[in-house]
Amino acid sequence: MNRNTGWYNNRFFPWVLPIVFVVLWQVLGQYNIITSTLLPTPLEVVQAAIRLFNTEELQEHVFISTQRALIGFFIGGIIGFVLGLFNGTILFSEKLTDTTIQMVRTIPHLALIPLVILWFGIGESAKVFLVAVGVMFPIYINTFNGIKNVDRKLIEMGSVYGLSRWRLFTNIILPGSLPSILVGIRYALGVMWMSLIVAETIGADSGIGFMATSAREFMQMDIVVLTIVLYAILGKLSDVIAKLFEQRLLKWNAAFNKK
Prior knowledge:
Layout: H1 16-30, H2 42-54, H3 57-89, H4 91-105, H5 113-120, H6 124-148, H7 152-160, H8 165-200, H9 208-217, H10 221-249
Helix pairs in contact: 2-10, 3-4, 3-6, 3-8, 3-9, 5-6, 6-8, 7-8, 8-10, 9-10
């Protein structure tokens, strides 16, 4: 039986539960089963978004948060990828640094906030640092494991055919480890937004987290819920982009070549 022909493979099917949830949420709020002071209705949240959009406040905060997230992601991602690459391909590097990295990885990076404030203050550097640290480890561990799990027989075959080290890496090791690396990137994208949420609630003067903190102080529940929805939308958008990269880069892999 072809798994791609089922009615549940319709592109709109994954949105059934979110739509049902929003409709139920609106109905419960509209009939005061859930009060607006506890949880505003979706329409009230949309009205708050329109209000902030018209003043251009919404665009400004979303842009600043996205900028922080991407800078931290690229810094942490590059460090994690390079460390995973070296430790996965060079035995000396693995023996020297992997144990230390694994020890540091077990420390919740958000527990470093008091130290980060002392090191960087409450400026942009502190927020980017927290995001970078959170992103680095998922990409490192998946890059490292991906390289280690490449079929040794393929590497031996490449050596027999006289491939140089560079061609051995680009033609066999990197493609073989790419599925694991991309899984690490998808996981790191989720950690990126989680780290940013916490970072922006600490002494920020801009960004979605700052908007949430300010709204909480004035009991503007519609804006508080709006910030949660914004993080969810940005997180989902990041995941969609990562999946598109998976489909583009892993066309050769039947598991990712689904139409």
